[in-house]
């Protein structure tokens, strides 16, 4: 496995970065379902408990440096943590108790929000259900079914 530098910058002028193990493949911009604008969020069982994914099982992440309604992931951060795009209104599957919404993302897309916070994919997740982004840099966490980050 190769190491992938995961950059994350905050608009407040501070920035942080961390290293995460990821496959040797270059980061993808987003899972295939994202290209179609699938806006269905579902609950999946994982080793971390019940977590939020898109309809294809791609895990959705929270960035601790974001503010409610504001994405602070820019530049290289967006390459490694693409926003979850939305076409229309997002819909919640069975078991999702989080509030779903949208904001204008930094990449020009309409981005999913969970309990008001921007939602992202991790380019290091290679298959549905992967949670390789969990805990990266101590600032990236999966969302639980209630929309709260699971920080473990």
In short:
The chain is mainly β. It is 7% helix and 34% strand.
Could you describe the 3D structure shown?
The protein has 152 residues and is mainly beta. Helices cover 7% and strands 34% of the residues. The protein is built from two helices and eleven strands, in the order ββαβββαββββββ. The protein has a three-stranded mixed sheet with strand order 4-3-6, with no helix packed on it. A three-stranded antiparallel sheet has the order 5-10-11, with no helix packed on it. The protein starts with a strand and ends with a strand.
**Order of strands in the sheet with the most strands?**
4-3-6
Largest sheet: 3 strands, mixed
Note the total helix count. Answer: 2
End-to-end separation in angstroms reads 23 Å
Radius of gyration: 14 Å
Helix-strand pattern, N to C? EEHEEEHEEEEEE
Helix content: under 10%
Average pLDDT: 82
Envelope shape: globular
Low-confidence stretches: 1-29, 32-36
Structural class: mainly beta
Percentage of residues in DSSP E strands: 25-35%
Count of extended strands: 11
Give the topology:
Layout: E1 2-9, E2 15-22, H1 32-36, E3 40-46, E4 49-54, E5 61-63, H2 76-80, E6 91-92, E7 100-104, E8 110-114, E9 117-118, E10 140-143, E11 149-150
Parallel strand pairs: 3-6
Antiparallel strand pairs: 1-2, 3-4, 5-10, 7-8, 8-9, 10-11
Top keywords for this entry?
2 helices; 11 strands; globular; 34% strand; three-stranded mixed beta sheet; disordered N terminus; mainly beta; 152 residues; three-stranded antiparallel beta sheet
């Amino acid at each position: 496995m190769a190491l992938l530098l995961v950059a994350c910058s905050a608009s407040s002028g501070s920035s942080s970065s961390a290293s995460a193990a990821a496959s040797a493949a270059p980061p993808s911009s987003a899972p295939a379902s994202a290209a179609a604008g699938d806006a269905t969020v579902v609950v999946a069982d994982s080793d971390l408990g019940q977590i939020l994914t898109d309809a294809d099982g791609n895990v959705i992440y929270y960035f601790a440096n974001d503010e409610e309604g504001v994405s602070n992931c820019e530049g290289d951060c967006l390459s490694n943590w693409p926003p979850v795009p939305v076409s229309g209104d997002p819909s919640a599957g069975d078991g999702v108790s989080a509030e779903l919404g949208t904001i204008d993302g930094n990449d020009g897309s309409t981005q999913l929000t969970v309990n008001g916070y921007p939602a992202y994919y991790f380019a290091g997740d290679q298959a549905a259900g992967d949670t390789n982004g969990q805990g990266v840099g101590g600032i990236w966490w999966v969302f639980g079914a209630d929309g709260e980050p699971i920080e473990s």
